[in-house]
Design a protein that fits this description.
Shape: globular
Strand content: 25-35%
Strand order of the largest sheet: 1-2-3
Largest sheet: 3 strands, antiparallel
Oligomer: single chain
Helix content: 10-25%
Amino acid sequence: MSEQRSDDVALTAEQCRPTGLDIEMARQVLRITWADGVTHDYPAAFLRRHCPCAACRTEYEEQSRTLLPVLSPSQTTPVMVTGGHLVGNYALQLEWSDGHATGIYDFRLLRRLAADLPRTGG
């Protein structure tokens, strides 16, 4: 029996099942169409900032505690998504131009992150 997180309660299985996944390399956007008919565009930079892997989470936590973080040259270079693949039927693993590929984005996580997507004009 698995524990259910309180922020998962409001999401149905249908809301967390993608029917379309497309990485638009030129725009650096992951477009997901969900089974309930909703479509979200996730900018690659947004996804990288929300990478769920332990190394990225630790790095972001350390930076948030530092008053004036010093960035390495690799941290100032834009990182591009270069590909991705499905992990079973529950997640997407993205590959990045800096070689990073350990973040596994569970579909439930991606649907929750949609609430924090940057708003576009229109």
